[in-house]
Structure formats: structure tokens, C-alpha cells
Design brief:
The chain has helices spanning 3-27, 29-36, 62-77, 95-101, 160-171, 184-192, 203-212, 240-256, 259-267, 275-283, and strands spanning 38-44, 52-53, 59-60, 84-90, 106-107, 122-137, 152-156, 177-181, 198-202, 219-221, 227-235. Helix 3 (62-77) packs across helix 8 (240-256). The radius of gyration is 23 Å and the shape is elongated. Helix content is 42%, strand content 22%. The chain has ten helices and eleven strands. It is α/β, with parallel strands linked by helices. It has two domains: 29-129 and 230-283, 3-Layer(aba) Sandwich (D-Maltodextrin-Binding Protein, domain 2); 131-228, D-Maltodextrin-Binding Protein, domain 2. The model is unreliable at 9-26 (pLDDT under 50).
Length: 288
């Protein structure tokens, strides 16, 4: 093979590699967002104050506002005059599948980052830290998880709370009956009807659930949390460009302190950010 043939062959190989690279680039969410001018967000409507619907049926909440900030940052970085955000209502049970299948680009709710879930989807920087607890009737002689021995506890199926509750009961040898439910509203209804003695979920969402019903005095939370829940935005596994774009937007919010406005809007009524949450914001304010 002479020099000219070698150069020609190398040129063909490079052209082929460039074609392959272009094809891969076109499969990523960022390239599709650039071309279509649309980003798709998923949310769970019954997870206030992180994600819910307002009077007009529009999504709202702490996690929803984070995703709106992500959309605006992506719009600016892609130099798009306009970026349409499409919101897809999901259940807790289908939210990860919606990310896996591409039905949504980002899931914006109360999804806890776990290693087993990361086998299916990817995750952004941590967005919030909460703990799992249980709601009981105010007059019940129940203060700790151990007090739910021989009692019934409702918990949403398909959530991390479902798993960690079972683990906590087993590790403490607490013989309680776990009652799976579809969402927080069903769990509260069972508690109100006396069909369960406790309803387990994330602490902040439980507080918001009964506060929104105007009956906070009728309920109380356990004096302990039986797990820690690190929320993050769920993303397609392996889409590095989208993950970088989302993390850039979140890190910017943390680094500049703009996260405080979003926190105050949705969580300010619970008091200032905890020391742990403040440290999380500070540590994750990653520089460009």
C-alpha cells in the first residue's frame, strides 16, 4: 500500500468515526432538546411541598422550581430563544420507568438516590435531605417505631420508605403488619378510618400532608426517624451531557445562594435549613 492509499484509508476511517460520533451525539437528550426546543419533566402530584398541582392544575413545589431553574440554565447554554417545558404527571411507582423509557428527561419530585436505583437510572447532585418517620393519631400511645409492635403501618409501595421500614422492623424484631398503599392520600385515609395505626413516609411530606388538610392537631409524628432520604433528580443512565447540564444548574443555585429563595418559598414555614442541609448546599456549590 503506497502513501496516497494510506492517507486515503486514514481519511475514510476518520470520516467514519466522525459519523459514528455524530450519530451518538444525536441520540443524547441535550441534542434532542436543542433540535426540538422541548424538555420533558416528570413529577408526582401528591408530594407537596416538593411537587404538587396548583389551583390551575400546574405543577408547583421545591423540586419543580429546581427543574424550572435547570430548564432556564439549559436554554441559555444552548442559546435557544425559547425552551418549552412539558410536564408529565407520574405515580411514585412509574417515575423511574418514565426516565428509563425516555418518556421524561428529568424526574422532579422526592426520589431518593440509592445504589440499587442507580442500576436503572442516573442521579443529579443531591437536592434535599429528609428522614423517614411515621404519622399517628395525636392521642395514640405511640412515640417510637417500637411502639408500633403488633400494629398496622401503611406505606407507599415502590418507595425507599417501603424498603427501609421493612428493614427497620426486622432489625429491631418489631412484629408489625405493613399495609401497602398507592399514595399519601390513601395512607392518610386509612389512618383516619382507624384501619392502620401509623402511616410511614418522608417527614416533611407528612407534615405538609396534614397541614394542608387543616387538621395538624389531630396527628403527630414519631419522635425518631428510621432512615435518611437523600433526594436527587432522576436522569437517564449514561447520558453524561444531560447530567452535566443539570448539575451545572444546581451547583449554580447552591453556589450563588439562589437556592435560599426556592427553599424559603416552599419550606420556609418549617424553619431555616438544617445544619446538614446547609452543609449540603455549601459542599455542592461546585465551581465552573
Amino acid at each position: 500500500m503506497d502513501v496516497r492509499q494510506s492517507v486515503k484509508l486514514i481519511g475514510l476511517l476518520l470520516a467514519g468515526l466522525m459519523g459514528i460520533s455524530a450519530a451518538y451525539a444525536q441520540t443524547g437528550a441535550m441534542e434532542r432538546i436543542r433540535q426540538d426546543g422541548v424538555i420533558k419533566f416528570g413529577y408526582v402530584a401528591g408530594a407537596a411541598p416538593f411537587s404538587s398541582r396548583d389551583e390551575r392544575g400546574e405543577p408547583q413545589g421545591y423540586s419543580v422550581d429546581l427543574c424550572r431553574a435547570v430548564a432556564e440554565d439549559i436554554r441559555v447554554r444552548l442559546r435557544l430563544p425559547r425552551l418549552e417545558t412539558r410536564w408529565v404527571a407520574l405515580t411514585s411507582q412509574e417515575r423511574l420507568e418514565a426516565v428509563q423509557s425516555g418518556r421524561v428527561d428529568v424526574e422532579c419530585s422526592t426520589t431518593t438516590w440509592t445504589l440499587s436505583r442507580q442500576e436503572k437510572v442516573d442521579f443529579s447532585l443531591i437536592t434535599f435531605v429528609d428522614g423517614a418517620s411515621a404519622l399517628t393519631s395525636a392521642g395514640a400511645d405511640i412515640y417510637r417505631l417500637d411502639d408500633l409492635k403488633d400494629k398496622r403501618i401503611a406505606v407507599i409501595r415502590g418507595t425507599t420508605t417501603f424498603t427501609v421500614l421493612a428493614q427497620a422492623l426486622k432489625s429491631r424484631s418489631i412484629a408489625a403488619t405493613v399495609v401497602p398503599v398507592s399514595d399519601r392520600s390513601e395512607g392518610l385515609r386509612l389512618l383516619q378510618a382507624g384501619k392502620v395505626e401509623g402511616f410511614a413516609s418522608d417527614r416533611v411530606t407528612l407534615i405538609e400532608l396534614v397541614a394542608g388538610k387543616g387538621g395538624a392537631s389531630a396527628y403527630k409524628l414519631l419522635d425518631e426517624d428510621f432512615s435518611i432520604e437523600q433526594y436527587a433528580l432522576a436522569l437517564p443512565r449514561g447520558d453524561h451531557d444531560l447530567r452535566l447540564a443539570v448539575n451545572r444548574a444546581l451547583a449554580g443555585l447552591y453556589r450563588t445562594g439562589k437556592i435560599n429563595d426556592i427553599y424559603e418559598r416552599w419550606l420556609g414555614k418549617f424553619g431555616k435549613p438544617s445544619l446538614l442541609l446547609s452543609a449540603m448546599y455549601f459542599i455542592q456549590g461546585i465551581s465552573e
